[in-house]
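Supplementary Methods, section 5.1.

A reviewer requested that the exact input to the structure prediction be made available. We therefore reproduce it here, unchanged from the version used in the analyses.
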Amino acid sequence: MNTKLKNANFEGSDLKNSLFRNTNLSFTSFRNAKNYDIDPNNNFLKKTKFSIPEVISLLRVFDIEIE
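The structure derived from this sequence is encoded token-by-token as follows.
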């Protein structure tokens, strides 16, 4: 891991233009945060907290369609 943000709190934050790569985000809270770019394949996510609907952005890296 290049960056360790374990237990960080981004609740309610606007993370526009943020990019998390090779980051330990375990136990971090993104509840009610928006505009983050997190690839679950390139970050460590354990017990990381997200809110709907923004959590759907984690699926962007997969070639899928959500209806």
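The chain has a mean pLDDT of 94. These observations are discussed further in the main text.
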